[in-house]
Amino acid sequence: MDIRQLRYFVALYEEGHVGRAAERLCLSQPALSQQIRQLELGLDVSLFQRAGKRLHPTLAAHTLYNHALPLLDGFERAREALRSFRGQAPQSLAIGVLQTVNASLVPQLLERLRQAQPHLVVQIYELSGTDIERRLLTGSLDIGIGFLPPRQPGLHSLELYEDELQLVIPENHPLREFKKVSLAQASELPMLLLGEEFRVRQLWQEQLALLGRRPHVQAELNHMSGILDSLPHTTLASILPGRARHLHANQGLLWKPLSEPRVPLRVGLLVRDVQRQQAMLELLRSLLEGILHGPRVAS
After folding, report:
1. For the chain, which ranges sit under pLDDT 50?
2. Three-state DSSP state, 193
3. pLDDT of the residue at 297
4. pLDDT value, residue 103
5. Tens digit of pLDDT for each residue in 119-167?
6. Pairwise CA distance, residues 71 & 142, whole Å
7. How far is Cα 82 from Cα 279, in angstroms, rounded to an integer?
8. What angle do the packed helices 59-83 and 274-292 form, to 10 degrees?
9. Which residues fall within 8 angstroms of residue 110, CB to CB, at 6 or more apart?
10. Residue 155 DSSP code
11. What CA–CA distances, in Å, run from 193 to 113, 190, 213, 224?
């Protein structure tokens, strides 16, 4: 019994018909029948009983099928994991990133990934945390970089760094002289915020809810750079992660830590299938840790 015969057996078991199974495998019917006979001879069991044009699996076939599926899946996972060691990395890698991560880490990450895996085509999608988790679950992303812990069951995470929510104000704002601003003080301010689909906005609302308050929203934008561009021309404030300052070198903005309490944000790698992406997770973590420890991304 070998992997090829197992694959042929699974196709025939699922199709219940030699013709359809052979078509699925791009194989001739006589060749498929011969491989199944060899499998039965090697195992010394009968796997199928013919009834007209259909094949009915025996009890032995049901047992073999239940064992064959995880074996075939494990074999494919092993082949994929070993490609990077043979210089045959997967052809593409789809990564979903938060806007703050895209600004502060991705430019350097792309170059380091290119050096480590020159044949890899990297696809970067700038998304909200909610969209990152949704696309990981649907399989349209391989890996995400988002807030932890993930909110969707079925996702796994690996922490990279900790950030925190900060108050962002124009330099002529009444709170410009404050070194820190309490949550109670910030809750009274008219705000320009990200939309409610963003995890940053949700976290801010959750913190205020603990104080029995709601945000004073005057305007919304769906992109952090738009908020940072707009704030200097308003009397509004905003709440953003500290690393958002890397999006914009605007000297007309002041960043104030929040206190009573501080609002931490944990950021890390997100993945649905740890085993399948294990090698790439380790590579990304190594590259990102090298970037994070460098002076260019200091908060």
Report:
1. 89, 296-299
2. strand
3. 39
4. 66
5. 888 999 988 888 899 999 988 899 999 999 998 889 999 999 899 999 9
6. 23
7. 8
8. 20
9. 122, 124
10. -
11. 33, 10, 16, 9
* Polymer length in residues for the chain: 299
Name the residue among 173, 132, 179 with its Cα closest to residue 151.
132
Tell me which residue has tokens 């601003």.
Answer: 181
Give the contacts of 220 (CB within 8 A, at least 6 positions apart). 192, 193, 194, 195
Rounded CA-CA distance 271/148 in Å is 12
Give the integer Cα–Cα distance in Å for 214 and 286. 40
Per the structure block, which two tokens stand in for 289?
């840790």
Q: Which domains are seen in the chain, by residue range?
A: 3-86 (1.10.10.10), 92-160+266-297 (3.40.190.10), 163-265 (3.40.190.290)
Q: Tokens 């050096």, residue? A: 115
Are the CB atoms for 212 and 193 separated by under 8 Å? no
How far is 10 from 70, CA to CA, in rounded Å? 11
For tokens 């991560």, the residue is 101
Gap between the Cα atoms of 12 and 145, Å rounded: 41
* Cis upstream peptide for 261 (omega within 30°): yes
C-alpha torsion angle, residues 24, 30, 36, 37 (rounded to 10)? 170
Please, is 153 exposed, middle or buried when counting C-beta atoms within 10 Å of its C-beta (0-12, 13-18, 19+)? exposed
Q: What type of residue sits at position 271?
A: V
Q: What string of DSSP letters covers 212-277?
A: T---EEEEEES-HHHHHHHGGGSS-BEEEEGGGGGG---TTEEEEEEESS--EEEEEEEES-HHHH
pLDDT one-digit tens code per residue, 257-273: 998 888 899 999 999 98
Tell me the two tokens of residue 88: 């045959």
